[in-house]
């Protein structure tokens, strides 16, 4: 069982957050290792000098972050921890303002223009087929924005995978929820038809091996998104 001796008791100020942060630290620091059973609610209550409800809330929050898992009659165990999973678990909690959205769009512009020459070196029939399928699904679900957005994101994930750069792929997976939020806002603002036109053009430029056309089309898209965003903020 995971060690309880490293835990400290707290003053009453902001007690719930302090307890949660302490339990989280036990996992992220490696004090509580993957596969270990964490101390029981009663043990944690005594060790931290807090209520059982406070302990339960902290454990539920850790479970929601996919860091622990509880089994009826057996207790709660630490799940395999990776930086990637931890960051991904945090992204749904981030509330994006319009300013945040602008920064994310600027990031995506740098990324998606920057990878064009890289992914064009690796174009093959398999990737073309995946992009075609994603585009067909976007067209099929243009009136269902949730499903449309899923295939929109899949289209871009395919482009990232075409780079054959594991760092680009890993970072994209880590922040996918943030990118999803930005993409959903852009789709809501501009509508599905504009996105279908853009992705159709991108696919055609890829098939034609037209790097210049890809760069121009991608920049035009982000110019339009940023312009619309600025108009809304003014």
Question: What is the element layout, followed by pairings?
Answer:
Elements: H1 15-28, H2 41-48, H3 52-64, E1 68-71, E2 75-78, H4 83-90, H5 98-114, H6 116-120, H7 125-140, H8 145-162, H9 166-174, H10 176-190, H11 192-207, H12 211-233
Antiparallel strand pairs: 1-2
Helix pairs in contact: 1-3, 2-3, 4-9, 5-12, 7-8, 7-11, 8-10, 11-12
How would you characterize the overall build of this protein?
The protein is 69% helix and 3% strand. It has 2 domains: 15-81, Winged helix-like DNA-binding domain superfamily/Winged helix DNA-binding domain (Arc Repressor Mutant, subunit A, Orthogonal Bundle), CATH 1.10.10.10; 96-233, Up-down Bundle (Four Helix Bundle (Hemerythrin (Met), subunit A)). The mean pLDDT is 84. Helix 11 packs antiparallel against helix 12. It has a two-stranded antiparallel sheet. By secondary structure, the chain is mainly alpha-helical. It is built from 12 helices and 2 strands; from the N terminus they run H-H-H-E-E-H-H-H-H-H-H-H-H-H. It starts with 14 loop residues before the first helix and ends with a helix. A hairpin with a 3-residue loop joins strand 1 (68-71) and strand 2.
């Amino acid at each position: 069982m995971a060690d309880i001796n490293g835990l400290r008791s707290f003053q009453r100020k902001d007690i719930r957050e302090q307890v949660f942060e302490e339990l989280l630290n036990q996992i992220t620091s490696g004090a509580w290792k993957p596969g270990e059973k964490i101390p029981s609610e009663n043990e944690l209550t005594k060790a931290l000098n807090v209520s059982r409800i406070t302990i339960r809330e902290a454990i539920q929050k850790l479970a929601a972050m996919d860091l622990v898992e509880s089994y009826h009659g057996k207790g709660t165990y630490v799940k395999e921890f990776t930086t990637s999973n931890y960051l991904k678990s945090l992204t749904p909690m981030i509330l994006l303002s319009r300013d945040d959205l602008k920064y994310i769009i600027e990031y995506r512009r740098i990324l998606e223009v920057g990878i064009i020459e890289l992914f064009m070196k690796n174009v093959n029939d398999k990737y073309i087929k995946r992009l075609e399928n994603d585009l067909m699904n976007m067209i099929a679900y243009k009136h269902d924005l949730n499903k449309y957005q899923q295939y929109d994101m899949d289209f871009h994930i395919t482009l990232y995978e075409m780079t054959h750069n594991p760092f680009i792929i890993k970072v994209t997976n880590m922040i996918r929820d943030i990118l999803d939020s930005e993409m959903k806002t852009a789709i809501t603002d501009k509508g599905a038809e504009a996105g279908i036109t853009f992705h159709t053009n991108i696919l055609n430029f890829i098939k034609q091996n037209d790097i210049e056309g890809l760069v121009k089309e991608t920049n035009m898209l982000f110019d339009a998104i940023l312009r619309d965003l600025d108009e809304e903020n003014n």
